[in-house]
Write a structure and sequence with these properties.
Residues 114-273 form the Pseudouridine synthase RsuA/RluA-like domain. The protein is an alpha+beta fold. The protein has helices spanning 37-46, 57-65, 137-145, 173-181, 238-248, 268-275; strands at 4-5, 24-27, 69-72, 76-77, 89-92, 107-111, 115-120, 151-152, 161-167, 185-194, 203-209, 218-220, 226-235, 254-261, 303-311, 318-322. The protein has 2 domains: 4-92, Structural Genomics Hypothetical 15.5 Kd Protein In mrcA-pckA Intergenic Region, Chain A; 107-322, Pseudouridine synthase (2-Layer Sandwich), CATH 3.30.2350.10.
Length: 331
């Protein structure tokens, strides 16, 4: 059988988005040079940390039969028996493991020809990663809008709810992503936490470091890389306190904190609140990491990306988007 070459438009991958999911691309390392294409893909599948129980050798063989394994950089459909060279890229689709369905859905705040702005619920990751693949904003919205190019311009933690901006075409991604990378977006958050000594007008400025693979980040000595402004601190009334305690049990007197981050470090607001003595209600990582599998969908983390404001990089118009979610209920 001759190699089957694939004509791919420049800048596009050889396998497109399928059912909301992009294909995996894996480079053949030196120590796997000469391995057959089948054995290499089977190795990648069987060593997945989160693997579908039916993704077996027969399922891998079917990928080859269906033309769903591609070798590059000179793109060709892979034959199971062909030997791979070090440095070649192999493209294929992974089969996601079964996931627990997210209890809430995304709401569309705004949609035009360039962007979609969604109101993200808690317990839904922004992008596919680790054990959260299909139950993510990216995959769910791609499927809902039948648009494989739909991509987040920024990220919210899985447990954070609120306003999330997505681009509808790949040629726009860089323009909107640059807004966030260059801090051209004004972001306002709300958090529910115990009342303490923090007053409106407070600045939290320090250095945050987070090691990949570790759940918690840390505030450490060194030059400042994380800045947060406390815009407001509003104590809850008796009725609001009762709503929070109906979810989480007895709690100290709580307040609604309005926060504006001027940097975008991972877990920045969660760390700043905890470090100031106001751990966010329902936070599964601060001060104590809740073991995987023990979270309750009835007890969300009360952190909400409530407002997103920026100058549109395409039209130049001011854009302001508000979450419709309530910091108490988050539904």
């Amino acid at each position: 059988m001759h190699e089957r070459r694939i004509s791919v438009q420049r800048g596009n991958p050889p396998l497109g988005v399928r059912d909301g999911l992009t294909a995996s691309r894996v480079r053949v390392p030196e120590n796997h040079a000469g391995i057959s294409a089948f054995d290499f893909v089977w190795h990648l599948v069987r060593t997945q940390r989160h693997r579908h129980p039916e993704d077996n050798e027969a399922a891998v063989a079917q990928r080859f039969a269906d033309g769903l394994v591609v070798i590059g950089p000179k793109y060709r459909y892979a034959r199971p028996e062909e030997a791979l060279q070090a440095g070649e890229d192999v493209w294929f689709y992974r089969t996601p493991a079964p996931e627990q369905k997210a209890p809430f859905a995304c709401k569309i705040i705004h949609e035009d020809e360039d962007i979609v702005v969604v109101d993200k619920p808690p317990f839904m990751a922004t992008m596919p990663r680790g054990m959260h693949i299909t139950e993510t904003v990216t995959v769910q919205m791609r499927r809902a809008l039948n648009n494989g190019e739909l991509t987040p311009a920024h990220r919210l933690d899985r447990n954070t709810a609120g306003v999330l901006l997505m681009t509808k075409r790949k040629e726009l991604r860089g323009r909107y992503q640059d807004l966030f990378a260059k801090r051209g977006v004004e972001k306002t958050y709300e958090a529910l936490a115990p009342i303490g000594d923090t007053k409106p007008g407070t600045w939290w400025e320090n250095r945050i470091e987070k090691v990949a693979g570790e759940v918690q980040g840390h505030i450490v000595a060194g030059s400042v890389n994380a800045r947060t402004f406390v815009q407001a601190v509003e104590p809850l009334d008796t009725e609001q306190q009762a709503i929070a305690e109906a979810m989480h049990g007895k709690l100290p007197a709580l307040a609604r904190y309005v926060l504006q981050p001027y940097t975008g470090k991972t877990h920045q607001l969660r760390l700043h609140m905890w470090h100031a003595g106001h751990a966010i209600v329902g936070d599964p990582a601060y001060p104590k990491v809740i073991p995987h599998g023990s979270e309750s969908f009835d007890q969300p983390m009360h952190l909400l990306a409530s407002i997103l404001r920026f100058e549109d990089p395409i039209s130049g118009a001011e854009r302001v988007f508000h979450s419709s979610r309530n910091i108490l209920r988050l539904t």
